[in-house]
Amino acid sequence: MRYAFEYARRHGRKKVTSATKSNAINYSMVFWDDVFREVSAKYQDVQHEQQLIDSLCARFVTAPESLDVVVASNLFGDILTDLGAAIAGSMGLAPSANLNPEGRYPSMFQAIHGSAPDLTGKGIANPIATIWSVSMMLDHLGEAELGKALLKAIESVIAEGKVRTPDLGGESTTRQMGQAVIAALRKPGKRLNPLLVRARKPSHGQCRNLIANGKPTASSTARYSASMTAPSRQ
Amino acid sequence: MRHYNLAVMPGDGIGPEVITEGVAALQAVAELDGGLKFETQDYDWGSERYLRHGAMMPEDGLKVLEARDYNAILVGPVGDPRVADHITLWGMLLPIRQGFDQYINLRPVRLLEGVASPLAGKALRTSTSSAFARTAKANTAELAAGFTRERHRSRRCSRRCLPTMARSASCAMPSSMLAGTGARK
Fold first, then answer.
1. Using CA atoms, how far apart are residues B52 and B55, in angstroms rounded to an integer?
2. Buried b (16+ CB within 10 A) or exposed e, A154-185
3. CA-CA distance, A213 to A77, in Å (whole number)?
4. Going by fewer Cβ within 10 Å, which terminus of chain B is more open, N or C?
5. Is any Cβ of chain A less than 8 angstroms from the Cβ of B95?
6. Sheet holding A69-72: strands in order across?
7. How far apart (Å, rounded) are the C-alpha atoms in residues B33 and A108?
C-alpha cells in the first residue's frame, strides 16, 4: 500500500483507490481497510478512496478514466487486471512487473497472458505485452526515457493499425509486429524528452533509500545527478 | 557504457516466440542509445524441463540467479496442458517471486488509441441473451468467514483473535497490485 502511494507521488498521479470487500470478508478485508486508512493518512497530498471489488469491476468498464492508481490484494488484483486487459482490447497487450522495491533482489518482468498452447509454433502471438514488459524493465533499471521511447513506439504501431496480430483483428505475425515496433523506435528525428531524464526512476539498488525514507537521501540524490549528467543521447 | 546483466527465461508455449521479440526490442533500444549494453543469459526453466527432469527449475535455482547478480529477469509465460497448473506455478514463478521478495505486482492498464472494445458490435452479431455467459455465483461461500466468526465468538475470543488474523492476512496477501488506467501518460 505504501508502494501504491509512493508510486502515485512519483508519477504525479492524484488518487489511490483500494479494492476491498470488507462487508463480506469480515476479517482480512477489514484489516486491509485499517491498513489503507493508516497508510493513506501519511500521504495527505494524494487523494484516497476505497470501493467494493464488485462495483469497482463495473467502474473499470463504465468509468476507467475516473481511476488513477488502484491497490488490491493478490486475488482481486489478478481479476481486475485481466478485466483491465480485456477492456483494453486484448490480453496480448498487457504487461506486468514483479518488483522488489528495495532493490535487494532482481525484479521480474512478464506479460500477463498465458502460454497459449493453441498458438504455439504458429508465429502469430502478439509480442506487445512482452515488449511493454521490457519497457517497464527499462523504467525499473533507471532508464525511464528509453522505457518511454519504447512505449511510444508500441503506441504508434497500434494507433497506425497497419501491422496487427490476429488477436487485434489482423493477419500479421509475431515477428512483423516486433519489427514494426523496432522500426517505430528508430524513426528518424526521434528525440528523447529531456524532461523525462529528470523524472528518472531509481534503478535497482537505488530504490532502497527512496522507499525506506519516503524521500531521496543525499547519496541517492547525488547518484541521480550523476546519472542525469551522463552523455546525452540521440 | 552502462551495463546491465539480465536473466531471460522464455518459458512455455508461445513464450520463446514473444521473448525473442522482447529481446530484439531491448537490443534495438541499446543500439539507439549508444551508451548502453545488455548482456542476457537464457534459462530453459519451465514445463519442458519438468517433463524431462522432473523439476521446473534446478533446486538451487534462486541461488544460481543470486550468484550472477542480475539486474532484472525477463520471463515468458509459464504453463503447459501436460503439467498441472499448480506445479508450473509453484515450481517456478512463485518461488522466484517469494524468494526474491517481489511483493509488488505492478500492472498498468491503458486504453490504446486504435484498439476497439472487444464488445463493440457483439450485440449485432449475436442475440443479447447469448452475448454473455451466465455466471453462477456461489452464494453461501462467504459464510465460511461468518462461521469462523461465530466459532470465535462462542469461544469468547473474537477480539483477541484479530492480531492472529492480521498476521495471516499479511501472509496471505504477499503481493499487491497497482493499475494506472486511462488518461494520464
1. 8
2. bbbbbeeeebbbbbbebebbbebbbbbbbebb
3. 27
4. N
5. no
6. A47-52, A15-20, A69-72, B176-180, B104-106, A95-99, A107-111, B72-75, B2-9, B36-42
7. 23
H or E segment at A147? Answer: helix A144-160
Burial A47-57 (b: 16+ CB within 10 A, else e): ebebbebeebb
Q: Considering only CA atoms, which of A97, A86, A161, A168 is closest in space to residue A127?
A: A168
Separation CA A75–CA B23 (nearest Å):
30
The alpha-carbon gap from A215 to the nearest alpha carbon of chain B, in Å, equals 19
Number of Cβ pairs closer than 8 Å across A and B?
309
Q: Which residues in chain A touch residue B70, judged by CB atoms under 8 angstroms apart?
A: 106
Burial of A70: CB neighbours in 10 Å, binned 0-12, 13-18, 19+: buried
Q: What is the CA radius of gyration of chain A?
A: 19
Q: Which grid coordinates are listed for B86?
A: 499448480
Over residues A167-218, the pLDDT tens digits come to: 999 999 999 999 999 999 998 655 444 333 333 333 433 333 333 333 333 3
Contact A65 B181 (CB under 8 A): yes
CB contact under 8 A, B78 and A1: no
**Placement of cell 524532461 in the chain:** A195
